[in-house]
Amino acid sequence: MITNTRRVSAPLTLPLIIAAMLFSASACSNPSAVNTNADLAEYKEAQTSTADREENVDKPAFTTKAIATFNEPWAMTALPKVDDKPPKLLVTQKTGELFIVDTATGVKTAVAGVPKVAYGGQGGLGDIIIAPDFATSNNVYISYVEAGKGSDSNIFGAKVIKAKLSDFNSSAPNLQSITPIWQQTPKMKGQGHYSHRLLFSPDGQYLYISSGERQEKTPAQDMAVNLGKIIRLNPDGSLPTDNPFADNNNDIAAQFWTIGHRNVLGMALDNKGKFWAHEMGPRGGDEFNLIEKGKNYGWPLVSNGRNYTGTDIPDHDTRPEFAAPAITWTPVISPSSISIYSSGKYNDFPAWQGNALISGLSSKALIVVNFDENNAASERYRYDMGARIRSMLVVNGEVWVLEDGAEGRLLRLLPK
């Protein structure tokens, strides 16, 4: 039986430590890039627990159908569906390209006008979502990493823009009317923990942005910087007056919805409108959190993992003033995205209705999480995908998967 908190304690031997260090250098999907970060959680090896491979009587089986191949894909979203035609997806590549993919044919059409991105480490072109009013505005929101200018070209930060996706039904789609919405402050050295996932509230009135702590730990508790936070803005980038820290005469803190985060790479709203996010822990302690207004999630003061040096970090249960995760994973799963299953027009996997589908990098897995009426969550089961999984997307009850890396495939899951 899978419980809400899964923690495996095992002594680390010197060979395992050496192997993990070697893996962190070799597993980067861009071999030509020099990785100067000692703490890249995305690239650490997972020790897979046999308990996670339990067979479940209601665990549906599926096959996969390859649609297209990408060079380091990072995110995807669906364009509004036309009639009964297969969906068209917008797919980003970390290297700086945006494509419209016809899932019926696998044809990829490049979108012109993408801003220059700072590619390297975990940085590059990031998330993409369509505006709630896309049907009339054709607007999309995009996150990416940019470098500083001039003598500051060695520092980096995430940025979010709004742009009009023009001619998207033609052979020459392009981005126009690019408007800056938000950026990480300050830019910093290193190329990790940008997070920069995007999510709209159910009513379309608010934009949430995850902002990683850039592997510096302390910014997550620093109210003077917008790192290590989940941000809440109006769609035009202005500040909602009801944000939890809006009254402290600090324009930076007025952006924050929650604080104390490490590296949030997945945000989603369940079928009841509850806000969930997962984030990567250090050595162990990946988290799945219910996100609630104004709460502090504790990083780096508490974690159910350990520092990369091996030293302990106090667990969440030692500091009840911090919001505790609904699930923690040790060994890690390296969660990279989340999508909530809803049947829509189709219902390929009725057993997953209302469940969260989480993609795993080092775990090379699809993890299925369910919820109960008390806002608790638990891992239901997982699937070994045989490759690092970068992104999951549910569209009208169909499930789409992006593999990570230089030959990452777009897959559709087909029920058996």
How would you describe this protein?
The two termini are 25 Å apart. It is globular and about 50 Å long. It has two helices and 25 strands. The longest helix has 13 residues, at 14-26. Strand 21 (365-371) and strand 22 form a beta hairpin. It is mainly beta.
Subunit organisation of the chains: single chain
> What structural class results from the helix and strand content?
mainly beta
Rounded Rg: 20 Å
The N- and C-terminal alpha carbons lie at a distance of 25 Å
List the helices and strands in order.
EHEEEEEEHEEEEEEEEEEEEEEEEEE
> How many β-strand runs?
25
Helical element count? Answer: 2
Largest sheet: 5 strands, mixed
Overall residue-averaged pLDDT value: 89
Would you identify the regions where 5 or more consecutive residues have pLDDT less than 50?
A: 1-54
Fraction of residues in helices? under 10%
Strand content: 35-45%
Q: Biggest sheet: strands side by side, in what order?
A: 1-18-17-16-15
Gross morphology: globular
What is this structure, in a nutshell?
This protein has 416 residues and is mainly β.
Give the topology, please.
Layout: E1 5-7, H1 14-26, E2 62-70, E3 73-78, E4 88-93, E5 98-102, E6 108-110, E7 125-130, H2 134-137, E8 139-147, E9 156-166, E10 174-183, E11 195-200, E12 207-211, E13 229-233, E14 256-259, E15 264-269, E16 275-279, E17 286-290, E18 327-330, E19 335-340, E20 356-360, E21 365-371, E22 377-384, E23 389-395, E24 398-403, E25 408-415
Parallel strand pairs: 1-18
Antiparallel strand pairs: 2-25, 3-4, 4-5, 5-6, 7-8, 8-9, 9-10, 11-12, 12-13, 13-14, 15-16, 16-17, 17-18, 19-20, 20-21, 21-22, 23-24, 24-25
